[in-house]
Amino acid sequence: MRKFAIPTVAVAALSVAIVAPSYAQTPTPETTITASPKVSPSKAGTKAKPKSVNLTVNANWKTSGPDGENKPIVQKVKIDFPKGSLYLGGKYKAKCSESELARTRLDNNDKLTGKCAKAVVGSGTGSAWADTVKTQPKFQLVNGGAKNVYLYTVLKNPARVTTPVPGVIKKGGKHGGYELTLTVPQELQVVAGTPISLISVNVKTTAKNWIATTSCPKNKKWPFTVTSSQDTTADAVFSSFVKCS
């Protein structure tokens, strides 16, 4: 029987062809979120005498890969508040519904007017990628009653968009306080054919007797968790705490 010899160079080339794909695989993109809330005052109230507080939240998103390229679109954000927190939106002096927000005019400074202006309980700014260019949305936090809150957003680039991000509030959640779920509307996910990918959001409440505290745990820490859901990457989860007394 005739034997065929395979040249050494051919064997080496075949080995490289088999092994090479394992080195060429692109790592799966991963999104992370961090949040640094501040509660003022940090000394808690009681169930009998809740203490009105203001809350400042700074959230930041980062996804592996080149900045501005192939970044995911944030579709939903859920925040779990601790036991000892108290949401007073149902009792607050002014409320504004989503349908009323749709009809409300803005002034020359892009501020809400009329009835909805009285329901503004905070404000903020943000930054996002509009494809590979940065854009800076502005926010007004609006009280919607016992179960609703709205992050009214004004975006000017790549096109002007004015619309609320609706939030639903439920008692309970991971930490026994409240659960807030914000759902980003489609018109803020893609603007003028351009995907919008969040980089940061900074929001501060300014209203009195809109949120309050009723207790501080024995370990002097209010726990919280933020979960961000994107279209092309896995959920990003961040848990930490705020000191209290």
Task: Characterise this structure.
Residues 27-39 have a biased composition (Polar residues). Residues 27-50 are annotated as: Disordered. The protein has helices at 8-24, 98-103, 114-118, 186-189; strands at 31-35, 38-40, 51-63, 74-82, 85-87, 120-130, 133-135, 138-143, 148-155, 161-172, 176-183, 190-191, 194-205, 211-213, 221-230, 236-243. It is mostly beta strands. It has a single domain (29-243), classed as Immunoglobulin-like (Sandwich), CATH 2.60.40. It has a 16-stranded antiparallel sheet that branches. The chain is globular.
What secondary-structure arrangement, pairings included, does this model have?
Blueprint lengths: L7 H17 L6 E5 L2 E3 L10 E13 L10 E9 L2 E3 L10 H6 L10 H5 L1 E11 L2 E3 L2 E6 L4 E8 L5 E12 L3 E8 L2 H4 E2 L2 E12 L5 E3 L7 E10 L5 E8 L2
